[in-house]
Design goal:
single chain, 157 residues, 5 helices
């Protein structure tokens, strides 16, 4: 699905978007995910893209302005027995290009994700944010998200 919002186009990502997406993630010094623009790592990104693209429950999106990739996010829909077997949408890997922050791009991407969730009859939209990203926390709260849970991670690699 592609939606045109005032001067921002949000659409499903294509394989040819990967260099711009990888550059955006690699420029993020706070995330600590080890992303890199080193050509030797590109095969890892291609493999991940193929897995996301093949999944009926995951979608990778990009935000474009003037033909340039200015943001990205991914959605995943999960169904569990809790909530009487309802589904939840997880919004992940939200990133706005650093020179484009503060222009409403992130808000448009999140609003798009919420509209997609509503269209799919999802009962809940949730996301996580790195604990040190205080500006992001304020951003999500302005959009109506509530800090309701404490998350835990265990690195395996």
């Amino acid at each position: 699905m592609t939606v045109e919002l005032p001067d921002i186009r949000i659409r499903q990502a294509r394989k040819d978007d990967l260099p711009a997406l990888v550059a955006m993630f690699a420029a993020d010094t706070v995330g600590g995910h080890g992303d890199t623009t080193d050509p030797a790592a590109f095969a890892d990104y291609l493999k991940a893209f193929a897995a996301i693209e093949a999944s009926p429950d995951q979608t990778l999106y990009v935000g474009e302005r003037g033909g340039e990739i200015v943001g990205t996010f991914q959605t995943m829909v999960t169904t569990s027995l809790t909530g009487r077997g309802s589904s939840a949408m997880i919004i992940e890997a939200v990133q706005t290009r650093s020179d484009m922050r503060g222009q409403g791009i992130g808000a448009r991407m999140i609003e798009f994700a919420i509209a997609e969730a509503k269209g799919r009859g999802v009962r809940l939209v949730q996301l996580t944010s790195n604990a040190i990203r205080k500006d992001a926390h304020r951003f999500y709260e302005r959009l109506g998200f509530k800090p309701s849970h404490l998350g835990f991670k265990m690195a395996l690699k």
